[in-house]
């Protein structure tokens, strides 16, 4: 996993963008309006930008999807990739650029096979955090160096059965799309 992570984060790619670098649900704020049927999503904002970097947009998307989704999304991945690329292309057009020149869908799909592994690497740690029992959550990691953070995270009690199930589904999915 460490080798895969290092390869992905250090590789230069032809189609790059400014990335968030830590794109998972705890770094996303959602704004909802009340409706007759409950609530409606009206805005989304990314927060916590200290991991900003340049790289393939696939890295942020794979991290976000693989650290917080389920088999249903894996089974319909092509549909979600089309939605993402359409939105990305729309933003590029609004900025006066040609999306087919800057990041064509074919290049996006090629990068997905190559950089989806980054999302897998991040999911290994993030899923444990998400599945940590409430009483075992760390209050703060401020002031801890990397070795101490890793040591503290190894002590966490989490739902191991659900974690293993999600990791199996993720690995099976990555094999199915030939991304491992």
TrEMBL record:
Name of the featured protein: EcKinase, DUF1679, and/or APH domain containing protein
Record's keyword annotation contains Kinase: yes
Single GO MF descriptor: kinase activity
InterPro entries documented for this protein: CHK_kinase-like, EcKL, Kinase-like_dom_sf
Pfam families given in the database record: EcKL (PF02958)
Keyword Transferase listed: yes
All residue ranges annotated as the CHK kinase-like domain in the record: 1-94
Keywords: Kinase, Transferase
Lineage of origin: Eukaryota, Metazoa, Ecdysozoa, Arthropoda, Hexapoda
SMART domains: CHK
């Amino acid at each position: 996993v460490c080798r895969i992570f290092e390869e992905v984060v250090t590789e230069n790619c032809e189609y790059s963008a400014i990335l968030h670098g830590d794109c998972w649900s705890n770094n996303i704020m959602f704004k909802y309006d009340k409706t007759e049927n409950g609530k409606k999503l009206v805005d989304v904002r990314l927060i916590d930008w200290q991991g900003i970097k340049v790289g393939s947009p696939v890295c942020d998307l794979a991290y976000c999807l693989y650290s917080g989704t389920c088999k249903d999304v894996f089974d319909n991945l092509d549909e979600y990739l089309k939605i993402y690329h359409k939105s990305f292309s729309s933003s590029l057009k609004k900025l006066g650029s040609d999306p087919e020149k800057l990041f064509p869908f074919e290049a996006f799909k090629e990068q997905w096979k190559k950089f989806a592994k980054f999302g897998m690497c991040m999911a290994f740690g993030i899923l444990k955090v998400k599945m940590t029992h409430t009483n075992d959550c760390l209050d703060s990691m401020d002031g801890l160096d990397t070795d101490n953070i890793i040591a503290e995270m190894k002590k966490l009690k989490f739902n191991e059965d659900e974690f293993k199930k999600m990791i199996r589904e993720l690995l099976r999915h990555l094999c199915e799309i030939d991304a491992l």
